[in-house]
Amino acid sequence: MLVTWSTMHPLSPPMVPKVNYGVNPFYLKSTENATVDHFTYEFGEQWIYRAVLPNLQYKTTYYYQVGSPEGDFAYDLDTDNGQVGDEWLRAVQDITATKPYMVLAGNHEINGLQNFTHYRNRFTVPINNPYNDTQFYSFNLGPVHYTALSSEYVCLTFLYGEQLAINQYNWISQDLQQAKANRANQPWIIAGMHRPIYWPYPSSVSLDGDFVENYTMWILKDGNDKMPGLEKLFIDSEVDMLFAGHVHGYERNYPIANGTVYKDGPNPYHNAKAPIHITTGSAGNEEGQDTTDYNCPPSPSSAQRSLKFGYTLLHVYNATHMHMEQISVADNGEVIDDIWIIKD
Q1: Can you give the pTM of this predicted structure?
Q2: What is the spatial distance between Cα 118 and Cα 111, in angstroms, rounded to a whole number?
Q3: Can you tell me the distance from the alpha carbon of 106 to that of 220, in angstroms, rounded to the nearest whole number?
Q4: pLDDT above 90 for 214
Q5: Residue 240 confidence class, pLDDT cut points 50, 70, 90
Q6: What residue spans define the domains of the chain?
């Protein structure tokens, strides 16, 4: 596990940022020093601290305290400069303190045109590509190979150029092919990115004339003459599931490849013939729900969709069974959709 926190001011030498931790909350006997990174942005500057806690025991509760001898603890930051990121990190602290919190960037992490400044500095992800780029990475956990990528690199080449998207494609191509060859160890392959390839309305429906959103659907799926699309890569690599957000709602699609929908049989997710695309963007935001998108007739691939605020849980049981649930916060935790993904 890796602990991350931030302060608005640097520590005064010789103070050293550290994490004290242990299984007894009254006796935090272990200590790890933290690394320090500094970044600036339009509202000011912050110092980000990261400490790795090694050799933790499985199914064991650890207590920890972060800071320095002069009392700079995590998350007690002033929000007068509009530090929404600090508010968010405080809100999810109960989750991030107990589970690895793996993130990927979307359009709201662009930070103006400052190249994802807060995303790059606030969060720590595996860097296992040759470009030292935190926008795309992968990791194995149990029977699953997870691949995270940036839809923004693909969709916003008019801001960032095409080379970043090409770098990502080349690396992810290799990563997914290796994952496909490694099915004996990780039989499931799950990919994630911010924008979905398949949206909650038919491709013939224009999103109120929004050129950018219509363009992103096409460019992610099919690419252009300078940059390959991603759908063929997911199909060829036999990706099992693809999770996305961006749309402020939930949608489960039937297995789909190149527009062909596979929904025959009592359970189309049993030995699915194509990747399963899930849009899980219903956690809530100040703009409200995407009623425009969801008032359109559903696309042919849509199996279930909902505007209720909630979240998605995926339970990976073994090499043959996964169970996905959509939980409605509006309905006090009711499961409003669930499927079994099964492979013989």
Answers
A1: 0.78
A2: 7
A3: 14
A4: no
A5: very high
A6: 1-101, 126-342
**CATH architecture of the domain covering 1-101:** Sandwich (2.60)
Closest CA to 10 of 31, 32, 30, 40: 40
Encoding tokens for residue 3?
């602990």
In this prediction, residue 82 carries a pLDDT of 36
pLDDT in tens, 127-168: 999 999 999 999 999 999 999 999 989 988 877 889 999 999
Fold identical between 1-101 and 126-342? no
In angstroms, the CA 133 to CA 220 distance is 20
Report how far residue 78's alpha carbon sits from residue 258's, in angstroms, rounded to the nearest whole number. 49
pLDDT digits (tens, 9 = 90+) for 258-272: 999 999 999 999 999
Which of 248, 242, 344, 246 is CA-nearest to residue 301? 242
Q: Give 61-83 pLDDT, tens digit per residue.
A: 888 877 643 322 222 222 334 36
The residue that leads in pLDDT, 310 or 86, is: 310
| The predicted structure's pLDDT at residue 83 | 62
Evaluate whether the domain defined by 126-342 bears CATH number 3.60.21.10. yes
Average pLDDT, the chain: 83
3-state SS, the chain, equals CEEEEEECCCCCCCCCCEEEEECECCECCEEEECEEEEEEECCEEEEEEEEECCCCCCCCCCEEEEECCCCCCCCCCCCCCCCHHHHHHHHCHHHHCCCCCCCCCCHHHCCCCCCCHHHHHHCCCCCCCCCCCCCCEEEEECCEEEEECCHHHHHCHHHHCCHHHHHHHHHHHHHHHHHHHCCCCCCEEEEECCCCCCCCCCCCCCCCCCHHHHHHHHHHHHECCCCECCHHHHHHCCCCEEEECCCCCEEEECCEECCEECCCCCCCCECCCCCEEEEECCCCCCCCCCHHHHCCCCCCCEEEEECCCEEEEEEECCCCEEEEEEEECCCCCEEEEEEEEECC
